Amino acid sequence: MMPPLTTSVPVPHMPFRIDFATGIVSLGSCFADEIGKRLRDGDFYVELNPFGTLYNPASIATALHRLIDDREITAADLVFQDDLYHSWHHHGSFSRPTPEETLEVCNSRIHQAHQALGSAKLLMVTFGSAWIFEREGQVVANCHKVPQQEFVRRRMTVDDIVALWHPLLDELHALYPQLIVLFSVSPIRHMADGLHGNQLSKSTLLLAIDELVAHHSSLVYYPAYELVLDELRDYRYFGSDMCHPSDLAVEIVWEHFQRATMVGAVRQQAQFNRKQHKQERHIPLHPKED
User: Fold this and answer.
1) Which residue from 257, 254, 238 is spatially nearest to 246, judged by alpha carbons?
2) For residue 211, with 0-12 CB atoms within 10 Å meaning exposed, 13-18 middle and 19 or more buried, which class applies?
3) Which numeric CATH code is attached to 23-73+101-268?
4) How is the chain split into domains, by residue range?
5) For residue 183, what is the enclosing H or E element?
6) Is the CB of residue 64 less than 8 Å from the CB of residue 70?
7) Which residues of 275-284 are buried (b: 16+ CB within 10 A; e: fewer)?
8) Which residues contact 253 (CB under 8 A, 6 or more apart)?
9) What is the number of other CB atoms lying within 10 angstroms of the CB of residue 154?
């Protein structure tokens, strides 16, 4: 009998099921983007990262508060850098040449996501790093290449994260009692902190989520981090930077996610829909002439 070549990570069935009528909001790291794009290609309704990629629990919490309140950003939330106006609360993909354009693109997504949150059944939150940057006492979601001396960088503690998220989760449950919150930790390594620093950061996130899940019945944890770092602990499952999971690794995590959250008929339809969208995006080398 051949010995096992991987460490199997059990992924329990989630205490909910999603289908094509399920409203989903996804916030967090670029790993959240990968799963969110697959949901969208499967024709699920997903409001995906309305602030762009967010990494730390404080910035994600601030974004959620803004969505709950449907609160716009203003000119005071912008900074001009490298010929663009950036929002301290958004990823650089929202930056534009004029403040009016930046405010328009940011606030239109806030309003859209506020509506989506009100009817959503599932909120997916993916933490990427416990490290935060503070400017004038406020956490920023992105530094936008502003000189580093303008920021204070520190690692949040487990208590910091729990104290921030406990009241937020209580508010979410009171406003949206139908909402299930699915937490995960991104398996992407942040090598700027070194391997040891990355492990400390990820451990902080995992411990904080564990405590939050223990105290809130509407929370569940999905083990994306463990799937990639334990079951798929081979460099063939990572990209050329050896930090980001490869497309194959993300597909395997996606397969586990489908089995944990969807019935068979929904999985099959989602796979069919993804193939259809892939074919639609395909550009033939030699298109036929009419």
Assistant:
1) 238
2) middle
3) 3.40.50.1110
4) 23-73+101-268
5) strand 180-185
6) no
7) eeeeeeeeee
8) 35, 224, 227, 228, 245
9) 13
CA distances to 64, 125, 130, 188 from 55, rounded to whole Å, are 13, 10, 8, 11
Average pLDDT per block of 10 residues along the chain, 290 residues long: 75 92 94 90 96 97 98 97 97 97 98 97 97 96 96 97 97 96 94 90 98 94 94 88 90 94 95 88 62
Going 10 to 56 to 71 to 52, the CA torsion angle's sign is negative
Residue type, 119: S
Residue 220 CB neighbour total at 10 angstroms: 19
* DSSP line for 93-149: GG-BSSHHHHHHHHHHHHHHHHHHHHH-SEEEEEE--SEEEEETTEEES--TT--GG
Would you state the pLDDT for residue 201? 97
Q: Let me know if 224 is exposed, middle or buried by CB neighbors in 10 A (0-12, 13-18, 19+).
A: buried
Q: Round the CA-based radius of gyration of the chain to a whole number and report it.
A: 20
Strands 180-185, 122-127: parallel, antiparallel or unpaired by DSSP? parallel
- State the residue for tokens 């328009």: 104
Residue 69, token pair as written in the block: 């309140």
The string of DSSP codes covering 187-253 is ----GGGHHHHHHHHHHHHHHHHHHHHHH-TTEEE--HHHIIIIIT-SGGGB-TTSSSBPHHHHHHH
| Nearest CA among 185, 182, 187 for reference residue 231 | 187
At position 20, the amino acid (one-letter code) is F
